[in-house]
């Protein structure tokens, strides 16, 4: 338990104790007919409970709401002096009858969250009045993020298991095929080539899983080194040269000179390289991939847009919101042919986020895609000579910039 949780628990416990004492004093004085001033602790308890960032509701034996702090009111679980969700009424009755604490999970729609629901763990605690339960306290703890992380973890484990199983099974079958074709050199060579392909795919998958895991646990802005945008663009284009030549695709670069960003040069080169490689993988032969960088301003802040645009197959609108998910592939068949792992764009997203930026996509089916990585500008270092275009096959420029990676 961290310090913040411990302090909240302490305050809640103290406030509830004071509130229970105040209730007991009120009821005792009402029963005896004595007109006494309210105990000072009653006001303190109300203020303390109202200051908490968790919902608190106090009910009597008849399920009438005695107190509800502002958080619980905003959650709409109380209307007038009654609880609205039936499951909470059942919880209160159970605690009143048994005298034992109990809890239940509750999903609620909250204002400003659209169709998204918020999950709460509702803990019910009895407050005894003599030998019986006189009141019940409900505490609402938001467990939405914990549930989301658990779902992500389960989904990740399931996806990893499936993705690892595919190349491993393929390698096993290919090894059996090699054994059966031992007397056929051509068949052995063919199956050995396939084994090499699957082995390389498995190696990339493991490496990218390690990289993604490291990025997800990394702090934002990894390092304060000044990184030249011209340099990482040049490295990405150089790295893609062989792949571009094999597929007959021209890669051009046009940069606004001297732009600098803070961060890790290796990570940024990896992110941009992933975008360029995927743009090539999803483009037809004899087309062009353009890499550009430029300075933009948004809400008074200067940013660097590094974009990769292709003339490829494009992405359907229904897929645009999912392309940055782990293991999500727009074209499964093409990914199998190219050995794609489905992790490239997830890595790009985490690198951009860790550097205080973001990545976005524009695409039309049949008209290509543009992926743009936006990073905070750290400064400018104007070169002595104007920047020149870099081309994987020949010199040239592209009129617009974007980026493509799937």
Furnish the topology, listing elements before pairings.
Layout (H helix, E strand, L loop, with lengths): L2 H30 L7 H12 L3 E6 L4 E4 L1 H5 L3 E2 L2 E2 L2 H13 L3 E8 L7 E13 L2 E11 L1 H37 L4 H32 L9 E3 H11 L1 H7 L2 E6 L3 E4 L2 H17 L6 E11 L2 E9 L7 H4 L11 H7 L5 H11 L3 E7 L3 E9 L2 E2 L26
Parallel strand pairs: 9-11
Antiparallel strand pairs: 1-2, 1-7, 3-4, 5-6, 6-7, 8-10, 10-15, 11-12, 12-14, 13-14
Could you explain the architecture of this structure?
With 406 residues, this protein is α+β, with helices and mostly antiparallel strands. The protein has twelve helices and 15 strands. The protein has three domains: 3-142, 2-Layer Sandwich (Beta-Lactamase); 147-217, Helix Hairpins; 221-406, 2-Layer Sandwich (Heat Shock Protein 90). It has helices at 3-32, 40-51, 70-74, 86-98, 144-180, 185-216, 229-239, 241-247, 265-281, 317-320, 332-338, 344-354; strands at 55-60, 65-68, 78-79, 82-83, 102-109, 117-129, 132-142, 226-228, 250-255, 259-262, 288-298, 301-309, 358-364, 368-376, 379-380. The strands form four sheets. The protein has a five-stranded antiparallel β-sheet, with helices on both faces. Strands 9-11-12-14-13 form a five-stranded mixed β-sheet. It has a three-stranded antiparallel β-sheet with strand order 8-10-15. Mean pLDDT is 75; it is low at 1-12, 20-37 and 387-405.
């Amino acid at each position: 338990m961290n310090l913040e949780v411990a302090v909240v628990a302490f305050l809640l416990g103290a406030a509830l104790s004071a509130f229970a004492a105040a209730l007991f004093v009120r009821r005792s004085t009402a029963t005896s007919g004595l007109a006494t001033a309210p105990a000072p602790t009653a006001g303190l308890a109300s203020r303390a409970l109202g200051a908490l960032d968790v919902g608190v509701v106090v009910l009597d034996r008849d399920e009438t709401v005695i107190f509800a702090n502002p958080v619980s009111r905003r959650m709409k679980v109380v209307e007038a002096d009654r609880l609205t969700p039936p499951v909470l009424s059942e919880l209160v009755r159970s605690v009143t009858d048994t005298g034992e604490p109990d809890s239940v999970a509750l999903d609620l729609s909250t204002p400003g969250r659209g169709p998204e629901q918020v999950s709460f763990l509702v803990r019910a605690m009895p407050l005894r009045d003599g030998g019986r339960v006189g009141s019940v306290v409900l505490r609402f703890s938001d467990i939405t993020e914990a549930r989301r992380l658990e779902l992500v973890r389960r989904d990740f484990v399931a996806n990893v298991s499936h993705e690892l199983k595919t190349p491993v099974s393929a390698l096993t079958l290919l090894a059996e095929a090699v054994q059966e074709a031992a007397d056929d050199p051509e068949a052995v060579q063919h199956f050995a080539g396939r084994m090499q392909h699957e082995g390389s795919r498995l190696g990339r998958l493991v490496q990218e899983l390690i990289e993604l895991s490291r990025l997800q646990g990394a702090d934002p802005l990894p390092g304060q080194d000044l990184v030249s945008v011209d340099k990482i663009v040049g490295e990405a284009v150089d790295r893609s040269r062989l792949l571009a030549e094999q597929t007959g695709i021209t890669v051009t670069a046009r940069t606004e000179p001297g732009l600098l960003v803070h961060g890790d040069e290796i990570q940024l080169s990896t992110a941009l390289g992933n975008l360029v490689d995927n743009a090539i993988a999803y483009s037809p032969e004899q087309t062009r991939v353009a890499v550009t960088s430029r300075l933009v301003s948004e809400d008074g802040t200067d940013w660097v847009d590094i974009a990769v645009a292709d003339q490829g197959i494009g992405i359907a609108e229904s897929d645009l919101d999912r392309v940055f998910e782990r293991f999500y592939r727009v074209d499964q068949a093409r990914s199998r042919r190219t050995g794609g792992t489905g992790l490239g764009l997830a890595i790009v997203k985490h690198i951009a986020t860790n550097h205080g930026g973001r990545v976005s996509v524009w695409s039309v089916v049949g008209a290509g895609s543009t992926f743009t990585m936006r990073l905070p500008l750290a400064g400018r270092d104007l070169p002595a000579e104007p920047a020149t275009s870099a081309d994987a096959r020949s010199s040239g420029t592209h009129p617009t910039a974007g980026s493509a990676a799937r």
